[in-house]
Amino acid sequence: MRQRPFLLLAALGAAAALALALGPAAGTTALAGGATARAWAIRILVPGRPAVGTRVLAAPATARAVSGGRFVYPADGSVVTARSVATHVAATSGAEARARAVAGVTSLSLFRGEIAAAAVGGRTHALASPASASGGTGVSGIAGLVVLGRAVKPTANRQIALADWGYAIALEQAGRRTDKPAPGYHDFITALDVFLTARHGGLPAGSELQIGYAEADAQAGHAEPLPPAPSEPATKQPPEPGGHGIPSLLSKPLSVTPSLGETGYVFPVYGNSSFVDTFGAFRADVPGNWHHGDDIFAALGTPVLAVADSTVFSVGWNRVGGWRLWLRDDHGNEFYYAHLSAYSPLAVDGASIDAGDVLGFVGDSGDAEGTSYHLHFEIHPVGLLGLGYDGAVDPTSYLGGWRRLRDVRIEAAAGWVRGTVTAAAPKAGAILLQSSDISNASGLDPKSLGLAAVRLEAGR
Questions:
Q1: Under a CB-based contact definition with an 8 Å cutoff, are residues 104 and 212 in contact?
Q2: Under DSSP, is residue 9 helix (H, G, I), strand (E, B) or coil?
Q3: CB 419 within 8 A of CB 413
């Protein structure tokens, strides 16, 4: 057993040697293809603060390597300690585009030993030529993983519960090959990814710790330009994760954040909540295997709000999103809400609603069942609707600037005062669980109401 960390580090070293050996392909031109690689050994993401960690390496065309000694964060090492770190990247463009990335640590300890491993390493590579493309995660692994005092066997994309304060994903990875407009391959791995859903170890909810991240992308030839933006808002309902509609056109997330055409947007969750940038992260059961939005964590039953004056559409159940709905604002931008526990009476197809109106309540329906309660939220700008579901953009920068509400409007059901604005908004979940007639209101699903009530009672 004591040899396993050594073997893992030997594999990382071999990968580094291969990366450093890569060089420009003889007799090729840079215009024939492209390759990129990125890696970091440790990265700590805390809401509202700059990311900290080891050096981030990126290689557009040259091999690079960094090895270091002990890493601690913060100064007392109460969150992260590692005896040594290593990062290596390389990328070569040409008729055969190649990329390779390696990152790892030894003697890892998180939260004073609540999570520990003798060695953690991620390695990935991609190769693309005019005839084919391939790639993979290679020799990646976690040696001697112990979580909350128990030995854990890491397997690809295994989710591990962390008591009531979070969860970890071991060997989080995904690879995707594309054949059009030219062969290409994109692959990434985060050897150990830890998410906090509640405050722990001095870090707030929404924090994330990434250990051993490596990403490689190789593309042969030129990609075709994006299709032109539609001259007016799309009238078709957008395709759903796991459903049918406009086909996906992209192999990886967009990096643009276009203007939505107006100001005054409202944050989609009322009151206390937390989120970090998870756009583009691996998700096995959605098109492209990447996360098309951000997850906003809040208590079960927390009101979910309309981000703008909008029209509601596509209200109902989806296998991945659970109880979900879409909004289309006055400029044609579209917004996707998923994993609700229930709807408000306003959640009706074709309803016109105002920014800040309550549409439903935070939950864990669909493929989020059993995870921490959250709203999955996506932004689809009007100019990118022609790309189908892959026209989503990273919502993080938008969310960070939107107004958070403390008072919310609740549309009336039978016997309610229509259009009431509360002086102090109701306690999260009170609307969902303490009203005798809301289960009969239009748009609310009684089954999900009962499920939420049972879970609340079980958690007391």
A1: yes
A2: helix
A3: no
Please write the tens of the pLDDT for every residue from 130-141.
Answer: 878 888 887 678
Tokens of 341: 């526990």
Task: Report the candidate in 286, 266, 217, 311 with the shortest Cα–Cα distance to residue 407.
Answer: 266
Going by C-alpha positions, the residue among 135, 169, 119 that lies closest to residue 37 is 135
Q: Indicate whether this model's pTM tops 0.90.
A: no
**Cα angle 212, 98, 87; round to 5:** 25
Give the closest residue to 31 by CA, choosing from 148, 182, 214. 182
41 alpha-carbon distance from chain centroid: 19
HSE-CB for 208 with a 13 A CA cutoff: 21
Per DSSP, the chain holds a count of helices (H) and strands (E) of 4, 26
pLDDT at 198: 93
Three-state DSSP at 181 gives coil
Please check whether residue 57 is in contact with residue 19, taking contact to mean a CB–CB distance below 8 angstroms. Answer: no
Radius of gyration of the chain (CA): 23
- Nearest to residue 185, comparing CAs of 19, 36, 9? 36
Count the neighbouring beta carbons within 10 Å of the beta carbon of residue 169.
20
Asked if 147 contacts 237 with a C-beta cutoff of 8 angstroms, the reply is no
Place of tokens 């050096």: 55
114: pLDDT strictly greater than 50: yes
Apex CA 411: angle with CA 410 and CA 413, to 5°? 115
Cα separation of 293 and 395, whole Å? 6
Query: The tokens of 398 are what?
Result: 């938008």
Nearest to 416 by CA among 352, 358, 353, 456: 358
Indicate the SS3 state at residue 449.
Answer: helix
CB 3, CB 72: distance < 8 Å? no
